UniProtKB/TrEMBL annotation:
Transmembrane parts of this sequence: none
SUPFAM superfamilies assigned to the protein according to its UniProt record, in alphabetical order: Glyoxalase/Bleomycin resistance protein/Dihydroxybiphenyl dioxygenase
Source organism per UniProt: Paenibacillus mendelii
Short name of one Pfam family: Glyoxalase
UniProt-recorded name of the protein: VOC family protein
Upper taxonomic lineage: Bacteria, Bacillati, Bacillota, Bacilli, Bacillales
Residue ranges annotated for the VOC domain, each copy included: 3-127
Length: 130
């Protein structure tokens, strides 16, 4: 059976150029006409220009969630999380959740969430301290 190499999240955006700038300048993605990818598609999106503003529909907060996620990316360690957080913060990212650590019997989960110009929420998390 053939294997899937990667997948991307499709985002309907209100302003294609503003979205492309955000993903390039803030998240450090490679940007083409409508593809935005980082780290060999570990984080990837296909941007589609909305016909109407009401077509832009980020996810709602789910049960037991404090903030919503439209996509979620995993990083190796908490140190990697800290590095990403500082890089995104320096580039002007808007955070809807600052880094938080949740302790569990299996270890500590660390995550933060940023939003793009259309309020699509991108979560970043790691379960490995270092």
């Amino acid at each position: 059976m053939s294997r899937v190499k990667f997948s991307v999240k499709v985002l309907v955006v209100s302003d294609m150029e503003a979205s492309k700038r955000f993903y390039a300048d803030v998240l450090g993605c490679e940007v083409t006409d409508w593809w935005v990818v980082r780290d060999d598609y570990a984080l990837g999106f296909k941007l589609i220009q909305a016909d109407r503003i009401e077509d832009v529909q980020p996810n709602k907060v789910g049960k037991y969630q404090e903030v919503s996620w439209d996509t979620y990316a995993y990083v190796e360690t908490h140190a990697d999380m800290d590095e990403l957080y500082e890089a995104f913060k320096a580039k002007g990212a808007r955070f809807i959740q600052e880094p938080v650590v949740t302790e569990a019997d299996w270890g500590a989960w660390k995550e933060f969430v940023i939003v793009d110009p259309d309020n699509y929420a991108i979560g970043f998390g790691s379960g490995k301290k270092n």
